[in-house]
Specification:
Rossmann fold; Dihydrodipicolinate Reductase, domain 2; about 35% helix; binds nicotinamide-adenine-dinucleotide
Length: about 350
């Protein structure tokens, strides 16, 4: 491992749009990583992005995979391309970090997981909020059994994305390439809810397109029943007037209540356990301020974890099987909307 650690891990980014900058900054901030190549089908984007970060620009990701001598590729293209590109990269022997959602269908998520496993490469899904301090503390409390029996929880995303946001790129808000506010914006919080509560037994939900001019939902609500017997609520909207208000996770149990709020599940707002008053004061006095954007602070730590996973030959913190879970819940909500019936997991895709 020491030999491996002596060499910086070589990253390439595919898709040089909005979120790619967050990845490039995070890679540049890690001494053990190097951004070597970037790719976009729009030449100006690849060129500008490559120049900004001193990386070789490519217009064809297959050529980049062949020529750039990469260890890891980060996929930040429109969501429908994630699995397809990830499979090609895995077959070329590259470790894969894929933006959320990891795929648009369970079949393509499974194909990506299978391709990475067959090629012996790591597959990490970008759910950076798992690295928020407040979320790590909450997860630790769950693991330590401090809530006693978990009773119920809620994942709330009250954000705004106006028509200009959806008009920025033709793939946004579409059924085949993006999904709506559940699949795009709220998948992180749905991931956190299921991470805290465990496997889901059944789902019932509604979606609606109330304000935005998009194919998929700008509002979604759902009720979940977890296998443990606990219940969950999802509320997601990109219609909030006039700006993002909150991304909040609530967890309640017989001996604990936690609310993580802030703009992007970054701040403990309620921390109640028996005899935990001074702990609560300590946590609240030392917490992070709101991040500058809803993307949060977690990308760097997630990428650092991926590098350690490669060096230590272990699973990354959010492997493909984990990324698949929130995808399945959202696809189940979409199925409820189509059929008007509750959906029992595992989901059988149409
Ligand atoms: N983790 C997060 O918090 C977070 C935040 C925003 C977006 N995302 C995800 O990241 C992905 C990209 O989102 P975005 O907002 O940056 O989109 P974007 O439209 O701004 O950027 C996507 C880029 O991919 C390029 N592209 C398309 N096809 C390509 C191909 N075949 N090869 C190379 N490049 C190609 C486009 O030209 C574009 O520049 C989406 O899947 C989205 O869900 C994640």
């Amino acid at each position: 491992m020491e030999e491996k650690m002596a060499q910086r891990v070589r990253f390439g980014i595919i898709g040089c749009g909005r979120i790619a900058y967050k990845h490039a900054e995070a890679i540049m901030g890690l001494a053990e990583a190097q951004l070597v190549a970037v790719c976009d089908i729009v030449p100006e984007r690849a060129g500008e992005f490559g120049t900004k970060y001193g990386a070789e620009p490519y217009l064809d990701y297959r050529e980049m995979l062949e020529r750039a001598g990469l260890d890891v590729i980060t996929i930040a293209t429109p969501s429908d391309l994630h699995a397809e590109i990830g499979i090609v990269a895995a077959r070329a022997g590259k470790h894969v970090l894929v933006e959320k959602p990891m795929a648009m269908t369970l079949a393509s998520a499974d194909a990506l997981i299978e391709a990475c496993s067959a090629a012996g490469v790591k597959l990490g899904v970008i759910h950076q909020n798992r690295f928020n301090k407040a979320i790590k503390l909450t997860r630790q409390a769950v693991e330590q059994g401090r809530f006693g029996k978990l009773t119920h929880g809620q994942a709330t995303v009250r954000w705004t994305r106006d028509d200009n946001y959806y008009a920025q790129a033709p793939w946004r808000g579409t059924r085949l390439q993006d999904g709506g506010v559940l699949m795009n914006q709220s998948i992180h919080n749905i991931d956190l809810l299921q991470w805290m509560f465990g496997p889901v037994e059944s789902v019932f939900g509604y979606t609606a397109t109330n304000l935005r001019k998009i194919e998929m939902e700008d509002v979604g609500v759902a009720a979940l029943k977890f296998k443990s017997g606990a219940l969950g609520v999802i509320e997601a909207s990109s219609t909030i007037y006039p700006k993002n208000i909150e991304e909040t996770l609530n967890i309640f149990g017989e001996s604990g209540s936690v609310i993580v709020g802030g703009i992007a599940v970054n701040r403990i707002e309620c921390w109640e356990f028996p005899g935990a008053d001074s702990e609560k004061q300590e946590i609240i006095s030392r917490q992070e301020s709101d991040p500058p954007s809803v993307y949060g602070f977690g990308h760097r730590e997630l990428i650092a974890d991926m590098i350690r996973a490669i060096w230590e030959d272990r699973l990354p913190a959010v492997p493909g099987e984990e990324g698949r879970k929130a995808l399945e819940i959202i696809l189940a909500i979409y199925k409820c909307q189509r059929t008007g019936q509750p959906v029992y997991l595992p989901l059988k895709e149409d």
